[in-house]
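Can't attach files on this board, so I'm pasting raw text. These are the components:
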Amino acid sequence: MQGEVKEKAQRAKDAAHALATLSTAVKNQALLAMAQALRKRQADVLAANEEDLSRGRKEGLSKAMLERLLLNEERITAMAEGLEDVAKLPDPIGNMTSVTRRPNGLQIGKMRVPLGVIGIIYESRPNVTVDAAALCLKSGNAVILRGGSEAINSNITIAEIISQAATQAGVPEGAIQLITTTDREAVNEMMQLHGYIDVLIPRGGAGLIQTVVRNSTIPVIETGVGNCHLYVDESANLSMAKAIAINGKTQRPAVCNALETLLINARVAENFLPQISQAFQERGVEMRGCPKTRTILPNILEATEEDWAKEYLDLVIALKVVENLEEAINHIRRYGTGHSEVIVTEDYSKALQFTNQVDAAAVYVNASSRFTDGSQFGLGAEIGISTQKLHTRGPMGLEELTTNKFVIYGQGQIRD
Amino acid sequence: MQGEVKEKAQRAKDAAHALATLSTAVKNQALLAMAQALRKRQADVLAANEEDLSRGRKEGLSKAMLERLLLNEERITAMAEGLEDVAKLPDPIGNMTSVTRRPNGLQIGKMRVPLGVIGIIYESRPNVTVDAAALCLKSGNAVILRGGSEAINSNITIAEIISQAATQAGVPEGAIQLITTTDREAVNEMMQLHGYIDVLIPRGGAGLIQTVVRNSTIPVIETGVGNCHLYVDESANLSMAKAIAINGKTQRPAVCNALETLLINARVAENFLPQISQAFQERGVEMRGCPKTRTILPNILEATEEDWAKEYLDLVIALKVVENLEEAINHIRRYGTGHSEVIVTEDYSKALQFTNQVDAAAVYVNASSRFTDGSQFGLGAEIGISTQKLHTRGPMGLEELTTNKFVIYGQGQIRD
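---
Top answer:
Structure tokens for the assembled complex are below.
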């Protein structure tokens, strides 16, 4: 057991060197071959997935968990199409930026290169196995995948299919590695693998992410926990605010860029709250409010300290009346997770103040927080949304899986 | 004791919010005021430094350590000039890049923002206290400084002078914090301060850096260990190779971008080795060679496995004869630390292969590794040289102390 992680990490490291300079043509052919193999071996994937589902049912997994675990023809087709989409994206590797000539004649540029070996630790959705492998391969990185135990059979079958197809298309062996040990110890081992894994990306619930962030001694990119706010300014177009609030809360409540708290300026609270309350009630959204909110909406529950900090990921929302923009910004600073924050306003200075002072991956004026997403931002596919500050912030596409090296062209220059 | 680190980190965090939007004018005025205060209170700094020096002498610090610890009028002037230079650098904060308009009309851009709170852990040179504070302030970050115990009196006096001058010039109180506890426990505490410190930068010897890299659970930027190589290709201009080798090894042997190993193509070894050997002998450089090298230079010591891995930081160099470029690249991959690597060649394809395949912060063709430096690269001052891949690689100037946030301007867009 113990040996598996280190052994696979070593193989990934060995593959990384050749992967870094693999041609775009070979990488794209491999992605297309992986798609084709997935389609061709759909029956094997469905059979493996059925094993996971039946064990999950026996073990009493929730309906939501089983739904995330489920693969069907449509979802396998979506995975294959995802691979084909990644093949179409431009290859970031080898591009050079900001080449300058120094006074001594040295030409210095920054070349985009892969990170090396990327570890992905994720939960039940088996499609992550394919998405992560595709993005890492296209960006020239080796990947070590560590999925959840619920999906282990699905993941093993998928990884075997795609890594075999990749190797046959000319990708170095070892480029795509799946850890098959479902033991927690494997994650602990990954978090200490200096010299083998260049970065770990946890994808999943807040518990998993915090475990990795707080225990890993190798670099981590923290993803995805979103306690997102919408501030309705006194100058807001209230019907716009209402549409953005409804979209943010109800269009897909279980995702990280969904709204969790509305902050309403006291000058518009009496007008806005009854409107939004009716809209939320019609859509089955449970509301919890501050004392001022409850003087206007007396029938809702009182929001506790816990509500302000909570990422509900459900049809529940917290409502707070604030005196001014400063109070809204302070509330966001205290409870926000640095994901997506929105102001709805018609006031130019307030828009500027909000975008300058709120510190988050994405700060919006007059648009839904639901747009925080790689494809919506025009990055193509995404491997996750970074909520940390180091390396990259917000949706991570291919470029965010790379780093730079300085390349210097001289004619014999030495330093005085 | 225990309380100091957390208390100062809290104060730094409180300051960071206001610092992030502080005007360039106030930051520059503060830097100039800090320079002026240092000059004015030179006698206090020298007196504190004398305390450190006399304790150091009593405790038997090495000559090299005492030399690094020493401050004099010239060095204090250099620190003040450093502050004035940073005031002249462009302020990176608030710049927006790659603003695009999406098909739905959203305008999405990336705004450069500070990292937040930066922790610097460093060794005996007291000038780091000033340099680090200046770069962090100009880039809108709060800083927590933790210098070595040998320099504690110098650091306390310098930090008091510059932070007082900064506060008087309008910088939020708490922006510049020095940990006065010399206890190792303080470093351990810093390495766990999630939610307070956004990134730790260790500056110093390999031991300090490895301790921080391997134990910190908050993000780290690894700096500076350089086992740098020069490969002399068979097509090299040998007098150029000789000049670059001498410059790399002898111009300043104790720094991280100095050369530690020469790899010489077997086709030119008989011609090149006697020349370079004579030049090294004249400059007091001790050589250690592989068996093939010793057939040509029989009087030098044999290089052991340890020599290939060692950052001498001294007038010692390892010499190895290699069959071809591939062997050179493999040697660098095995023993290099990802700092600076050089090829001397007149062969276009070899130059391309070396720059594409060698993975390091700086990869040179026909120039000295000694150029890996913020000011030589045109970044202005530097806070260190990153040898890790995440976030940034190579010399780190003001921009490297920042991150981005996405700012999105809408007209009421919601997601379908």
